[in-house]
TrEMBL record:
It comes from Aspergillus sclerotialis. Residues 28-271 form the SET domain. It comes from the Eukaryota. Coiled coil: none annotated. PANTHER family: SET DOMAIN PROTEIN (AFU_ORTHOLOGUE AFUA_4G11040), UNCHARACTERIZED PUTATIVE METHYLTRANSFERASE. GO terms for molecular function: protein-lysine N-methyltransferase activity. This is SET domain protein.
Length: 697
């Protein structure tokens, strides 16, 4: 069934003649063309005087030339004025029992197989001979040997295996029913032919709505009925092309909804397909696909807050049962965004960030959880931006892991040797770029949370952005990608309302009043020295010590409490005072008459060693703690600021109120950051201290 090598367009010219003989039409301004890059396609004639104007019907495919389930069942129109023979079986007739048993979708596949088996005697032969033949399809289902190596590390490989198993199961079930129906020569309907026909339908079929001009809506199934439109299916895909398919009484029309100048290709629009969908369904993808995005498989473990919230949402709104989760990472050029979408939501779908924020939420944040029909989220209110930062940190870890996995799995690959490998490489490269640009965006928001003392003006933001982009290795992205990253950051509002809410330990003392800083620094240094002496495992870790943040928290709350106990005490800044009050409200202080213990045995062991060190300092080196006596309660008694109960109280709060952020995430953009299939990812712990925009700094 291959076309002539002497005239590569001969088969398509014959197809056009066949379509015209059956009542179809191609607009006079358009011709069939072929080149190495686009293959066979349609284009406006170069010598055509003017652009083809929008609303022009380029192709009319007659309904009698379409192929669908309605042909297989020899459908007769209910309208007496209609053409009763419009949907003919054209000599491929299956027993009705078989059709009813396998359903419309599989019936269409077997009907196409039957028409293929008729060869040159078949009605649709002029069209079928122009289709990719069983040995020339390029979807992953046809990958073998070295081709499969190009799918390693990508989600296409498990998707291919899952789809192949499903299709084989479907074929075996349908074939048994076909053979049992008594159809003559049923053995000719082979697996290879079934795979071909299924692929053709997935890659070329249209919705049954294109037949709505002659078949009433109540007779048109909403799903599982596909329609093949000979000649219209020649058109190549162009993302965002403005086109329309118009159902008529005798034709299906293809219209352009934008002017097409002479010499330009007339393209179809398969919809906003990402590269994974294009490769899986059509066997090709686009190196600069603006509609590219990645689907994340995010599980809600049974019993987790996310699982419970989704279950509650389904109970409240039963219509959502079985609905897909929209967990997407968009490429930096993605055009189909709401105008008011935030900078983060221009890259990470709201459903994804909301789900991650619930998984990363602490107990107090979960108390504010809101469940509505269209979203489950942690609302934006005082102290809840920690939740956004924790969610972004989690997605940064996923992005880094994805980048390393793809890079490491490509180490043994050479240059692509065939069309399948070429498109697999385009897909791999686009997936890496997509995750890398998303990592740049997520890192920007985290970086803002790490910048203290900002005024928030435009010049300051531009300077900070320049510093941020300088961390991206030179030449890593094309200039248009770098420019779009800047546009995304500068022109869209961030979900993070305030900067400077994440602190390393060495930054904490700077937010105390200057007159408090020296005495606090002296106390912390002396205490750290004693701790490192007594606990060998903590030596050399004064700033990363597990007691650093709890000590600061205890100190802050003690100063706050002392302020309330005596008007002569020096005041905390308003930001710290509100934070201390908030913590005391959300995390009830420990009792004086019960000794607290940490749940984790290792943590409790460390805390006990810390207690011993502090007690020794109180009895043997009281000067080390005396410098803070005028800021806090006395160091005597059991309720003082570093008592065992208070340090455990602070320890538990720190576990809730810190954010673990990947260390130097943009180093993964380096060309030598290939990895070995896994990544040893280090994180840095930052203490979250919220900003209240109503409080002046």
């Amino acid at each position: 069934m291959e076309s002539s090598d002497d005239n590569p367009l001969e088969a398509y010219t014959a197809l056009l003649e066949w379509m015209t003989q059956n009542g179809g039409h191609l607009h006079e301004s358009v011709q069939i063309a072929k080149d190495e890059r686009r293959g066979v396609h349609l284009q406006v004639k170069k010598d055509w005087g003017n652009s083809v104007p929008k609303e022009t019907c380029i192709i009319n495919t007659p309904l009698s030339a379409t192929m669908s389930y309605f042909n297989a069942i020899d459908h007769r129109l209910s309208d007496a004025s209609g053409d009763q023979g419009l949907f003919s079986t054209h000599k491929v007739v299956f027993p009705r029992a078989f059709i009813d048993a396998v359903g419309p979708e599989e019936t269409t596949v077997f009907f196409l197989m039957g028409q293929y088996l008729q060869g040159s005697d078949g009605f649709w032969f002029p069209w079928i001979r122009t289709l990719p033949q069983p040995g020339s399809l390029t979807t992953p289902l046809y990958y073998e040997g070295e081709d499969l190596e190009w799918l390693n590390g990508t989600s296409l490989l498990p998707a291919r295996e899952q789809k192949m198993k499903l299709m084989k199961d479907n074929y075996e079930g349908c074939f048994e029913k076909l053979r049992g129906s008594g159809l003559e020569n049923a053995e000719r309907y082979t697996w290879d032919l079934y795979l071909w026909a299924s692929t053709i339908i997935v890659s070329r079929a249209f919705s049954a709505k294109v037949l709505s001009g002659v078949i009433p809506d109540n007779e048109l199934p909403e799903e599982n009925v596909s329609v093949l439109l000979p000649f219209i299916d020649i058109l190549n895909h162009r993302p965002l092309a403005k086109v329309e398919w118009r159902a008529g009484k005798g034709h299906v029309g293809f219209l352009v909804l934008e002017d097409v100048p002479p010499g330009q290709e007339v393209s179809n629009n398969y919809g906003p397909r990402n590269n994974e969908q294009l490769v899986m369904n059509y066997g090709f993808c686009l190196p600069n696909n603006p509609c590219d995005y990645r689907i994340l498989s995010l599980r809600a473990p049974p019993g987790s807050p996310l699982h419970q919230a989704k279950s509650q949402q389904t109970k409240m709104y039963p219509n959502l049962a079985g609905a897909d989760d929209h967990y997407y990472v968009f490429n930096i050029f993605y055009p189909l965004l709401p105008r008011d979408a935030s900078m983060e939501h221009s890259i990470f779908s709201p459903a994804l960030l909301n789900a991650l924020s619930i998984l990363a939420a602490n107990d107090r944040e979960l108390e504010t959880l809101e469940i509505a029909e269209h979203e489950i989220r942690i609302p934006d209110q005082y102290a809840n931006s920690r939740n956004l930062l924790a969610a972004l940190s989690q997605i940064m870890i996923e992005l880094i892991t994805h980048i390393v996995k793809l890079k490491s799995s490509s180490q043994g690959l050479q240059q692509p040797e065939n069309l399948k490998q070429i498109h697999a490489k385009i897909y791999r490269d686009s997936q890496i770029t997509l995750s890398e640009t998303a990592l740049v965006i997520a890192t920007w928001t985290i970086k803002r949370a790490r910048q203290h003392g900002l005024k928030g003006n435009w010049e300051e933001t531009k300077n900070m952005l320049s510093s941020h982009m300088a961390c991206v290795p030179a030449g890593r992205f094309p200039e248009e990608v770098v420019s779009r990253i800047r546009v995304r950051i500068l022109e869209r509002k961030s979900l993070l309302t305030n900067s400077g809410e994440l602190f390393a330990f060495n930054e904490l003392l700077d937010i105390l009043p200057p007159e408090m800083q020296n005495s606090c620094k002296t106390c912390f240094q002396r205490t750290s020295i004693e701790i490192e002496k007594a606990i060998p495992m903590l030596r050399g870790s004064s700033e990363s010590s597990p007691f650093a943040f709890p000590m600061f928290l205890c100190l802050t709350v003690a100063i706050y409490k002392a302020t309330h106990a005596s008007t002569e005490k020096r005041q905390l800044p308003a930001r710290l005072a509100k934070w201390a009050s908030f913590l005391l409200e959300k995390y009830p202080p420990p009792p004086d008459d019960v000794a607290w213990m940490l749940e984790d045995e290792d943590d409790e062991h460390l805390a006990s060693l810390f207690d011993d060190v502090v007690e020794s300092m109180r009895t043997q080196n009281s000067d080390a703690l005396a410098s803070l006596a005028d800021l806090t309660y006395s160091s005597r008694g059991d309720s003082w600021w570093l008592s065992p109960n208070w340090i455990r109280w602070a320890w538990m709060i720190v576990e809730q109120e810190t954010v673990q952020v990947p260390d130097d995430p943009l180093k993964m953009l380096s060309t030598d950051a290939q990895g070995q299939g896994s990544v040893m990812l280090s994180t840095v712990s930052y203490l979250y201290i919220p900003v209240d925009p109503e409080i002046q700094p």
